[in-house]
Design brief:
It is built from four helices and four strands; from the N terminus they run βααββαβα. The protein is an alpha+beta fold and 97 residues long. It has one domain (3-94): Ribosomal protein S6/Translation elongation factor EF1B (Alpha-Beta Plaits), CATH 3.30.70.60. It has a four-stranded antiparallel sheet. The protein is elongated, with a radius of gyration of 15 Å.
């Protein structure tokens, strides 16, 4: 299954309701499981972003739908990148001329 790395920033709404962030994360984790995906890792970070999440899901379409729903809730804005494993990169490189 594909992996995704999401960099997130809290919105003003998300900051005002920060005390409920752990509950929202738990709800998001359940929503991921409901669509056949999973939360691999989640971190609050310091710097340009507030959170980093690594997820695994069945398809880009499932990931996009989940992220659109997350954005509609209004607590975070995301920048998401599809990630490739070491094994996948080895396969890519193996096919280079």
């Amino acid at each position: 299954m594909p992996y995704y790395v999401s960099l997130m920033n809290l919105t003003e709404q998300g900051l005002k309701d920060i005390k409920n962030a752990p509950a929202r994360l738990a709800e998001s984790e359940k929503a991921l499981q409901a669509v056949g995906a999973r939360l691999v890792a989640f971190y609050m970070v310091m710097g340009a972003y507030d959170y980093v999440a690594i997820t695994e899901g069945p398809s880009d379409e499932v990931a996009a739908t989940f992220l659109l729903n997350l954005g509609m809730q209004g607590n975070v804005r995301t920048l998401t990148m599809k990630a490739f494993t070491q094994e996948q990169v080895a396969g890519f490189v193996k096919n280079l001329p």
